[in-house]
Amino acid sequence: MVNGLADVRLRWSPLAAIVVTTLATIAISIYCLLSGWVIIFQNLFYVPIIIACFYYTKKGMAFSVVLAFIYFFLIIAFARDPAVILQASTRAVVFVGIAGVTTFLSTTRRQVEDALRRARDELELRVRQRTAEVARANERLQAEIAQRNKMEGELRTALSYNRRLLEASLDPLVAISEGGQITDVNEATEAVTGFSRHRLIGRDFSDYFTEPDKARAGYKLVLKEGQVTDYPLTIRHVSGKEIDVLYNATVYRNEQGQVQGVFAAARDVTERKRAERRLAQRTMLLDGLNRVFREALTLEAEEEVGRTCLAVAEELTGSKFGFISEVNQAGRLDSIALSDPGWEACRLPRTRAVRLIRDMEIRGIWSRVLRTGESQIVNDPASDPDRVGTPKGHPPLTAFLGVPLKHRDKTFGLIALANKGSGYDSADKDAIEALSAAFAEALMRKRAETGRKRAEEQLRQAVAELEAKNQELDAFTYSISHDLKEPLRTMEAFSHFLLDDYIERLDEQGRDYLTRMGNASVHMKHLIEDLLTLSRIPRQSSPPTRIDVGQVLGDVVEGLRAAVEEKRTTLEVQDGLPAILGHAPLIEHVFGNLIGNALKFNESDHPVVKVGVRNVEDGTATFYVQDNGIGIEPQYHERIFGVFQRLHRREEYEGTGAGLAIVKRVVEGYGGRIWVESKLGAGATFLFTLPVWTEAAETVEEKAA
Amino acid sequence: VDRLKPVQILLVEDNPDDVEITRRALSLGRIANDLHVTRDGQEALDFLFRQGQYGAATPRPDLILLDLNLPKVNGMEVLERVKSKGGLCPIPVIMLTASNRDEDVARSYNLGSNTYIQKPVEFDKFFRAIEVLGEYWIIIATLPPKAA
Please, which of A215, A304, A643, A692 could form a disulfide with A299 given CB 3.0 to 4.6 Å? Predict the structure, then answer.
């Protein structure tokens, strides 16, 4: 409105209009007056009058009066008619009147306009004030906004930091409202559940676990206790996969300290649990192996070991039932162990079940184990090509694991397990293969052990019997020799008494007969003694010990001193003879007999007997007894060692003929041998070997004894 | 011991040859002795207890040589009876037997025998053993007084 008025003033110049209209009106009036047209021009005067009065009020009024006068004078000047003049004067008054009215109106308008203007000015002033106020308020607002923006930025940074912190966590993190709805999750939670963030938020926390009740109880516990640590739960992934986790959760509060919800962080312990399960299974396996081996050692029956092995196998794999069987000589299967649950489930009488598992035909799925010698996992037995079905009443097979029993790479049986809930895997196979190897080993060892024990027992019995027989024989031999010697004693005694008391009453022949009788009885006594010695040589009750051959020879030579001196014999005994392993009386007997023979069968003027060792090798010493006596023809070199074998008549050389036989038995008793090097008339050298003493050899002998 | 009175020896022996050898061996000694021989255990008991064929005049032996393996009543029983009877108990009893069984040796000593001699199976050793035995018990050892 204000602007509109201003616009009219700008475009409209009232003064010019007044001048133009006035001049035009006057000109037209003059023209009209001159032309006689009075009526037309009169009204033209209103134009400048109204304009002038309107725009210039009082000045306009004056102008109008002037113009009214001009009009009047023009009329007067040009109109002669008095009526017209009257009329004109009236009109002039009207002009003035109009002018006055216009002026009044204009003045009033002006006043109104002024009032309006003032009002407007006031308004403008107010507006300006208001605007200033607003501007100030605006500034404040701007400052506040800036401040707020800044804070917002910081907040955003903080939020993003927190978010990134959350997302940086590999553990699934979740915020839960008091009501149990998920309010926030991180990406790890999305990954572990398989649901996107927007799907998760607003949903019930407990929906994503295998045990929702437990999950619910979990966050309720957090709300109650303020926090919970290591709360085990299993998250179910959208795919159905299960992930074991441990939850650590705490409540969060607002600034007023009111509980707002729960922060929960899950730690994926699947790997750890798997490792724990693996460890547990491994421990179970080791325990199982241990049990199998231990029981193999302690239990009498192999069926008991089999039962233990089967129990371990079932426990290890979580099988419902199973058996351990062995291929018998007929190529059929005999069970070593059979689990009870299987047969209870069969609802077969126990005796029948036991009969069933003996001498069973090798067929069906598990025959493949025996055929191929390789472990078989069949988790879908129904569609297996080798399937032969189960006997009536037998629980259906849902899964099968067969592992061969091998000894020296030869399959001799199998461990068969069935109906593990989730089916068998390679871990089961590996475990049972380890168990199978252990069981096969334990079984074979047990059998070997049993066989060995039986053989040992038989041997012990045989030895005991032999010892008893030996003792019996000893007693018998002793009593025989004693009983034989008793009459001889009588004969010898009374022939002595006869010779003592009646020698004068007997002639030469009688004395000779009596002497022969006495000699015969003495000879008989020697024969019996030699026989007794011969029979006792192989049975020495004590183990052989270290024998100093030099010392033994000293004793022997001392015992033969009389004979040596009688024949003026040169007896040479080598120095530094090795110690041997034997029994002193027997070794003495050997040397004594041989040296005695060397002296006895010697017709030389200067008998020479040499005793020594020819060589020592491989733990054996070869001794010799050499003489320059009558010698032995080669054809008799073997025969002289026979029992009661003599080469000469009794009256030539006394003796029973048992001496060398005894020597040979002694030497051979020590694992040695004896032989002679001789020619008739050229002396004889008897050679024999004996074991050289060493500490180790003695220990071995002691142990053997 | 009264040197003038012969020592009374009771020999309980069933083998007549051994009896003769023993007699000869003892007779060669320097001591006078009366050797009484009984041929089985029962006879020995009769002699000792003066019963049966043996009258009240039967001498009480100073020394008993006792075989173990005897007919009727064996030597061990004779020994037991002798050693359990107060009057006979002090008489030295010398076991003279072929047995070398440990239990015989142990039992004999447990029952109170004074010496155990395993009869040597060789004549000369047997003969010598009897000689030494006589010498020891009659000359060297002091026997219990008769009154006891």
Answer: A304
Question: Are B126 and A489 in contact (CB < 8 Å)?
Answer: yes
**pTM for the full model?**
0.42
Tokens linked to A92: 């002039």
| Residue A29 pLDDT > 90 | no
- Exposure string of A304-325, with b = 16+ CB inside 10 Å and e = fewer, is ebbbbbbbbbbebbebbbbbbb
Element (H, E) at A658: none
The residue among A684, A685, A687, A689 whose CA lies nearest residue A668 is A689
Distance, in Å, from the CA atom of A16 to the CA atom of A673, rounded to the nearest integer, reads 178
- A67-79, pLDDT tens digit by residue? 888 888 877 777 7
Q: Which residues pair with A176 in a beta bridge?
A: A182, A262
Residues A317, A417: contact at Cβ < 8 Å?
yes
Torsion of CA A315, A316, A320, A325, to 10 degrees: -100
**Burial code of A551-578, b = ≥16 C-beta within 10 A, e = fewer?**
ebbeebbeebeeebeebebebebeeebb
B100's CB contacts (< 8 A; 6+ apart) are: B118
Pick the closest to residue B36 from B69, B56, B6 (CA basis). B6
- For A188-243, what is each residue's pLDDT tens digit? 888 888 888 888 888 888 888 888 888 888 888 888 888 888 888 888 888 888 88
Nearest CA distance, B32 vs chain A (angstrom): 20
Which residue of B lies nearest to A495 if distances are taken between CA atoms? B123
Q: Terminus-to-terminus CA distance in chain B, angstroms?
A: 13
Query: Which of A486, A488, A489, A495 would you mutate first to test chain B, the one with the most B CBs within 10 A?
Result: A489
Q: Which of A489, A496, A497 sits opposite B121 (nearest CB)?
A: A489
- Taking the CA of residue A469 and the nearest CA in chain B, the distance in Å comes to 18
B123/A489 CB distance under 8 A: yes
**What is the gyration radius of the CA atoms in chain B, in angstroms?**
14
Could you report the predicted ipTM of this complex, rounded to two decimals? 0.75
Give me the amino acid identity at A49.
Answer: I
Confidence category of residue A535, pLDDT binned at 50, 70, 90: confident
Q: Which two tokens stand for residue B117?
A: 């001699």
- Confidence check: pLDDT of A3 > 70: no
Give the model's pLDDT for residue A4: 47
